[in-house]
Amino acid sequence: MRRTAIPAIGSVLAMTLSASSSASAATLPAYIGAAVADAARPEADRQRDTERKPAETLAFAGVKPGDAVMELAAGRGYYTRLLSAAVGPQGKVLVVVAPPKPDAPADAPVPGAAVREIAADPHYANVTVIVQRLGELAPPVKVDLVWTSQNYHDFHNLSDISISTINRAVFQALKPGGTYLVLDHAAAPGSGTRDTSTLHRIDEAAVIKEVQEAGFELKGKSNILRNPADDHTAKVFDAPIRGHTDQFILKFGKP
After folding, report:
1. Residues 90 and 43 sit within 8 Å (Cβ to Cβ)
2. Rounded to 10 degrees, what is the CA torsion of 112, 115, 119, 125?
3. Structural domain boundaries of the chain?
């Protein structure tokens, strides 16, 4: 990445965050504000809120009380807790965890350990872990929303399943009219899937094409996590850019 651009990233991002927060705070649903303010959220998650803009992201997705949400590749559960609070006691959050690899050693970490811990907490009683392969999604109920953040690019790096199979499985898991929310690190326009395993980025246009091929309709885009100071040439884990990458959010609908 051009090192001359790095010092500007923090200031550009700060100005963008400030403008967005002041402009949108008054229009956010109260239940979303309550989800972000939930005292049960870890301090480490709260410290990431400025860069991740959870309230605006949840609002853009259209998540609401009573929804059934399926989360793919939830990581340490940053959004799991937020989704749990947003859908409330009448809703549910189904977190998909991959089954252990057949050749995994006996002392290997349990897949999804962090979100299993969340699901075991009575405060998050509406969270359930389901062990399924991404291409074989079969939730106990059809869901209103399928959510994946900063992971779609890695679905391309799975050796035993194609992205088209995953997207078709998501389509089948959703109710008619349901939403597929994809948030990810942006790659250079026109780069397609070239950088998924190296820089851990993907071209927004490639995602749109792939998801539409599964039968979805593009319903909207959000620029709230865009960062023009990111020139798309650095790995997303590199210290100067980590937490400040240019990110897109796409909302697809199942007809």
Report:
1. no
2. -140
3. 3-253
